[in-house]
Design brief:
The chain is mainly alpha-helical. It has 21 helices and no strands.
Length: about 425
């Protein structure tokens, strides 16, 4: 079945004045939000719903978009061997790259020691811990994680927005359609039309992205204040340096080896990257990334399989965050934590974090519940990073998005499922 291409060609083919560029609008929204949060903190604190509403509007359709993308991609292939091959290559890539991210994060935080010398008195953190207590659910073991991959109800998976459960159901449904052959074509046409309608919704929602970024940043600045971020500036600096190092020394060489420029790819998705800096939610850009990667010439079956899976398993930025924060908390509280202890704790964090990527606030919840389960680093120490978590989360979500896009193109190249000429043409024009 022939699918319409370039759903937003008019957005990229026409040159608009700068003030109409979405990236520029979001940046202006962020700057104005910081100013309002600093000058009028009471007003800034009241603007939080602007960001929350935007994220909810995106979450409203993300599950259906994953379903439509995966279903159409797999059912159109009809080759279950190819589907399995794509999934295997993607998972191998995810594990290798996230492991490298883990090592880089550990090395950086141990060399630069942002928390050494703080000698934090845990008794002073009780009030901060009160704010963190409510986000610490019961620890989830690996067996429970596997069990929770399977939804008790397909509709329930969509209503909860559980990415892994939606993905599992979508794959099974797509395989069932693929087994029907030509009989599945009417259903695929409905799925295709539904996806086009969902992308129309996303295009309308994106028009309020600058307002959402404005509200989210105004609230963050008003609540924590610019001055309150200074004591933890070293942690933020170390984390930012680690993120840059990962982009330069890991993702850039991988991109170069696969025949495309990381810088050009980041420029191509610049609107999405700026948006996640404001919202700290990768879910807010999933639909747009799905469309842009398809426009790059990546086969829809690869995009449909790799990108949704990457959202749950490819946690490049989250690995850097966990490495920086856990060791920082140990250093700040004078907790003895050797290399073996660090690796063990972070491996547990990688398991417990599955399915949480893309959900704003999930990282600190995973961190809290894991510290409570392992009893290695005092759980109350999490209060130390509450003031800068928003900044850190914007950083690791940014890296996650770049990493997921690189992974999709790389797996597509491995599968010879990327139109190289279209890839270069789009990246050059972007």
């Amino acid at each position: 079945m022939t699918r319409p291409v370039n759903l937003q060609t008019h957005l990229t083919s026409q040159r608009h004045p700068l003030y109409r560029d979405l990236t520029f609008q979001v940046v202006v929204g962020i700057v104005l939000g910081v100013l309002v949060g600093v000058v009028w903190p009471n007003i800034g604190a009241a603007l939080k719903p602007l960001g929350d509403i935007f994220i909810r509007l995106i979450q409203m359709v993300v599950g259906l978009i994953i379903f439509c993308t995966v279903t159409h991609g797999i059912a159109s292939v009809r080759d279950m061997g190819k589907v399995g091959r794509i999934a295997l290559k993607a998972m191998v890539y995810f594990e290798l790259v996230t492991s490298v991210a883990l090592v880089i994060g550990l090395v950086a935080v141990n060399l630069l020691k942002p928390g050494v010398g703080m000698h934090v008195d845990l008794a002073t953190l009780k009030q901060g811990m009160d704010a963190a207590d409510h986000i610490a659910p019961a620890p989830q073991g690996f067996g429970e994680f596997l069990t929770n991959l399977v939804p008790t109800s397909a509709l329930g998976a969509f209503s909860r927005g559980d990415i892994l459960q939606v993905l599992l159901f979508s794959v099974l449904f797509a395989c069932g359609l693929a087994s029907l052959g030509e009989k599945a074509q009417p259903v695929l046409r409905v799925v295709d039309a539904t996806q086009l309608a969902l992308f129309w919704i996303i295009r309308q929602v994106m028009k309020i992205a600058p307002i959402a970024a404005f509200g989210a940043i105004a609230f963050t600045t008003a609540k924590f204040g610019a001055a309150s971020l200074l004591p933890l500036a070293k942690l933020v600096g170390v984390f930012a340096l680690t993120c840059v190092a990962f982009l330069l020394f890991v993702l850039a060489p991988i991109s170069y080896a696969c025949g495309f420029s990381l810088l050009k790819l980041m420029r191509y998705i610049r609107e999405e990257l700026v948006l996640v800096l404001g919202t700290s939610s990768s879910e807010s850009v999933f639909p747009q990334l799905t469309e842009k990667l398809s426009r790059l010439g990546v086969n829809e079956s690869v995009v449909g399989m790799v990108l949704p899976t990457a959202y749950s398993f490819n946690h490049d930025g989250t690995c850097l965050y966990f490495a920086a924060v856990t060791v920082f908390l140990a250093q700040a509280t004078d907790t003895a934590l050797g290399w073996q202890g660090q690796l063990g704790l972070l491996l547990i964090l990688l398991v417990t974090s599955k399915g949480g990527a893309g959900v704003s606030g999930s990282a600190i919840a995973v961190l809290t519940m894991t510290l409570a389960a392992t009893k290695t680093i005092p759980v109350s120490s999490v209060a130390l990073i509450l003031g800068v978590h928003r900044i850190l989360s914007a950083g690791f979500v940014f890296v996650n998005i770049v990493g997921n896009c690189v992974a999709t193109v790389v797996v597509g190249r491995w599968e010879q499922a990327v139109d190289r000429e279209q890839l270069q043409r789009e990246l050059h024009a972007g």
